[in-house]
């Protein structure tokens, strides 16, 4: 798959740069999850060679309530991940921000929780030991995009298409104390977030929907990477966004979207799209 993987990786990167749609690869030939990650690895290598800096990972499809909504031939049944690069991550200092949608194909909004690793976890780290490696958490808004018409694709297509990642906006980080790390999984599982558009409430989601807790989502990624030696394991300094708490809603220029949390000390964000 190596030469084919590089060919497909260039095709996805070119389509992204030119804002062009593509047909799902699975509509053209059989594409396994393993093959899709080979394409993802080729994309990472190309981007690094061209000067982009990998700063972390993004998880997708961690919300089990949404699995049945995606996938054409069969529902998606497991999370996916992709690399995060400095070119698509933005730290925001204010609770109210502007974000351009120029070039975003079929953009949708996802409220998430983002973490930074302060220490590198051991390969066999327990979930408690992994939590102790976290430096901070923050609220994140991910703008996800799809080159596939009408958001119709299989899980392997999503992996190959840069994880459907568009842009990640990260709010004010909150440092995690030793005491807060001890109960982090439970606190996040019991927390909720609301999502509104132009002042109208559209949805609410719960941390427990994200693989029982966003902390569990990081642990899932950590263990999965032990089975993917072609990729680097989690390292100190990485940023990890753990997946949406609500469904992903289409957004368009002129709208203002807002989030608010309950049960966890994270400020919401208000984003006006242009």
Number of helices: 7
Largest sheet: 9 strands, mixed
Radius of gyration: 18 Å
Averaged pLDDT: 96
What structural class should be given to the helix and strand makeup? Answer: alpha+beta
Spans of at least 5 consecutive residues with low confidence:
none
Oligomer: single chain
Percent in strands: 25-35%
C-alpha termini separation: 40 Å
Helix/strand order, N-terminal first: HHEEEEEHEHEEHHEEHEEEE
Q: So what's the overall shape?
A: globular
Quantity of strands, as a count: 14
Residue share in helix: 10-25%
Describe this structure in words.
With 274 residues, this protein is an alpha+beta fold. The chain has helices at 2-18, 33-49, 127-131, 155-160, 178-182, 184-189, 214-225; strands at residues 54-60, 80-85, 89-91, 96-99, 108-117, 134-144, 165-170, 174-175, 192-197, 200-206, 239-241, 249-250, 256-262, 270-273. Helix 1 packs across helix 2 (33-49). The longest helix is centred in the first third of the chain and has 17 residues, at 2-18.
